[in-house]
Design goal:
Length: about 150
């Protein structure tokens, strides 16, 4: 069914010929610039997507982690009073009187009760003990220097 006298078909052919005559390719610089713009857009979308993934992963991780824990109390509580004055001219006392001294150490340690909920480091003993004070923290130890709370003895 080839109809050469179809007016609509002949008009389309004339329009196509006119379009071909006026058509030209854009310069290479324009094509390169368009390619660079598309490349930059792709990189920006990729970077934004990566930020969203990392941010969402961080938020999910923060939601799954346990909340802040209660503060850890020290093994021994410092004494309420300030640090004991230290005498730099005499060596620290070990619970035994110095040679030639007529004074004797007290038979029992000073009575003090730790606050509720705390644990003492040295077990109570009936033997004479020495009280040492370092930076306001008092500890009680037997005069021979041994400590029962250490596992390696």
């Amino acid at each position: 069914m080839n109809e050469p006298h179809d007016p609509l078909r002949s008009l389309f052919r004339e329009a196509a010929a006119a379009g071909r005559a006026h058509a030209s390719y854009p310069p290479a610089a324009d094509i390169s610039a368009r390619g660079r713009r598309v490349h930059r857009r792709r990189l920006a979308v990729f970077a934004a997507g990566a930020c969203l993934v990392l941010g969402g992963g961080g938020a999910a991780l923060a939601a799954l982690l346990p909340g802040p824990s209660a503060p850890v109390l020290p093994a021994t509580t410092p004494s309420v009073s300030g640090p004991a004055p230290t005498d730099t001219t005499h060596p620290p006392t070990t619970g035994e009187p110095p040679a030639g001294s007529t004074t004797s150490p007290p038979a029992t340690p000073p009575a003090s009760t730790p606050p509720q909920g705390t644990r003492t480091t040295a077990p109570p003993t009936s033997s004479p003990t020495a009280t040492h004070s370092v930076s306001g923290i008092s500890t009680t130890a037997p005069p021979d220097g041994s400590r029962d709370d250490l596992p390696f003895g």
